[in-house]
Amino acid sequence: MVIKRKWIFDGEAPWSDASRVLLKLDTGSWRTERPVLDREKCNYCGLCALYCPPQCMRDKGDHYEPDLGFCKGCGVCAKECPRAALKMVPEGEFLNG
């Protein structure tokens, strides 16, 4: 018996051959902390982007910046930064501003 599954979204799949974009959902509302970059400390090494589990660090040419629509606030980017250019700040500090 063969079980066939119809995918709900275009691009949804159990694996990818990188020929098309996979399903992306806005998951930024999950986090309790967000990464904040100190551009003075950043040397554009790319380790934050390399280790970011959801791959939400965006290359801005001279620094990497988290795409907060997809950032889950795990803090891996901040832990991997050798210059401590990223720090995790509680979301509550951003509610009024």
What does this entry look like structurally?
The chain is an alpha+beta fold. The protein has a domain at 33-92: Alpha-Beta Plaits, CATH 3.30.70.20. The strands form 2 sheets. The protein has a two-stranded antiparallel sheet. It contains 2 helices and 4 strands; from the N terminus they run E-H-E-E-H-E. It is globular and about 30 Å long. The relative contact order is 0.24. The protein has helices at 47-51, 76-80; strands at residues 33-37, 57-59, 64-66, 86-90.
Rg, Å, rounded: 17 Å
Low-pLDDT stretches are none
- Rounded to the nearest angstrom, the distance between the terminal CA atoms is 57 Å
CATH class of the domain at 33-92: Alpha Beta
Q: Determine the mean pLDDT.
A: 81
Percent range for β-strand residues: 15-25%
- Helix and strand pattern: EHEEHE
Oligomer: single chain
> What is the strand arrangement across the widest sheet?
1-4
Largest sheet: 2 strands, antiparallel
Helix proportion range: 10-25%
- Total strands: the figure is 4
Number of helices: 2
Supply the helix-strand structural class: alpha+beta
CATH topological fold name of the domain at 33-92:
Alpha-Beta Plaits
What is the global morphology? Answer: globular
CATH architecture heading of the domain at 33-92:
2-Layer Sandwich
